Amino acid sequence: MSEWTFLAVRQEGAVGVIELARPDVLNALSRQMVAEIVAAVESFDRDEAVRVIVLTGRGRAFAAGADIQEMADDDPIRLEWLNQFADWDRLSLVKTPMIAAVNGLALGGGFELALSCDWIIASAAAEFGFPEVNLGVMPGAGGTQRLTKLIGPKRALEWLWTGARMSAKEAEQLGIVTRVVSPELLMEETMRLAGRLAEQPPLALRLIKEAVQKAVDYPLYEGMQFERKNFYLLFASEDQKEGMAAFLEKRKPRFQGK
Ligand code: HXC
Fold first, then answer.
1. Which SUPFAM superfamilies match (predicted)?
2. Residue 135, SS3 per DSSP
C-alpha cells in the first residue's frame, strides 16, 4: 500500500515528481495533504540521487487552495495550537531545486505552494490568484510576502484585494512564472528543464539557491558576504576540481555532488 493518501510520488532518473492527487476537490490542500507534500519533498531533499523536485497537480487544478471545508469552523486558539504553518515553513528549508509545473488553477494556498518553489513552469491554461479576500480572510502561507517581494506592493495589493485571477501569460510578464508552455507539453518541457538542471553540479545549485534567497532577505552588504562564503565553500568540492579541469582539458564535466 502506498504511504501517500493524497499524492502520487515517483522518481524519474534524478528527478523526484510529486503529483497532488485529490482531483475531485481540485486538489484542495487539507492539512494532512500539506503534511504529506512536506514529507515527500523532504524525503527527496535528503536523497543524494534526487537532483530536482517537481510538483504538479492531477486534473484541472494545481491546487484550488486550502481545504475550505476543513477550515470553515476554525478559531484563532485552535489555529495557534495546530501550528499548521510550521509545515509550510519547512518547505522554505528545502535545498534541492524545486519546480512547480502548474497545470491549471493555482489559487490561495495552491498559489502559495507554487511560490514556495524556485521556478514555476505554467501551462498556458493555468490561472493564479488569491481569492481568500472573497472568503473574508487573507493568505496565510506567505502569499502577501512572497508576491510583494516579487512584484512590488502596489501591484501585489491589486491582486490580493480584488482576488482576481491572473493568466499564465500575465504571471510570466510579472516575473512570477519562468515559462509558459502549451498544456499538452507541460510535463515534457518541465522534465526537460529538470533534466538539464540535474546535470549541473548539485552543490553549486544548492549554494546558489541559498544565496539568491538571502538576496531577498538581506541588505546588499550582508548578502555579498554570504555569497562570498558560499563561493569559497564550493572550492572544497570535487565538482569544482572536475569543472575547472574539464574546462582546461576541453572536455565535458561529470558532476557528482561531492
Ligand atoms: C474545499 C474545494 C476547494 C477548496 C474547490 N473545492 N476548491 N473544496 N476547498 N479550496 C471543491 C468544490 O467544493 C467542489 O466539490 C469541487 O472542488 C469542484 O469545484 P467547483 O466549485 O464545483 O468547480 P468550479 O465551479 O469549476 O469552480 C472552481 C473554483 C471554485 C473557482 C476553483 O471551486 C472555488 O472558488 N474554490 C475555492 C477557491 C478558493 O477560495 N481558494 C482559497 C482557499 S483559502 P463538490 O463536492 O461540490 O463537487 C486558502 C488560504 C490558504 O487557500 C492559507 C494557507 C494554507
1. ClpP/crotonase (SSF52096)
2. helix
Give the distance (Å) from ligand 1 centre to CA of residue 206: 35
Q: What is the pLDDT of residue 2?
A: 73
pLDDT of residue 239: 98
- What CATH homologous superfamily does 202-249 map to? Lyase 2-enoyl-coa Hydratase, Chain  A, domain 2 (1.10.12.10)
ipTM greater than cut 0.95 = yes
CB atoms within 10 A of CB 90: 18
Q: Is-catalytic flag, 172? A: no
Q: What is the pLDDT of residue 55?
A: 98
Task: Please list the ranges in the chain whose pLDDT falls under 70.
Answer: 1
Domain 7-199 grouped into CATH 3.40.50.170: no
**115 C-beta closer than 6 A to ligand 1:** no
Q: Is 104 in the pocket of ligand 1 (CB under 6 A)?
A: no
Instruction: Determine if ligand 1 sits within 6 Å of the CB of residue 120.
Output: no
Provide the pLDDT for residue 40. Answer: 98
pTM: 0.97
Active site residue 222: no
Are the CB atoms for 105 and 61 separated by under 8 Å?
Answer: yes
- Three cell numbers written together for 81: 495550537
pLDDT of 1: 53
Q: How far apart are alpha carbons 188 and 194 in whole angstroms?
A: 10
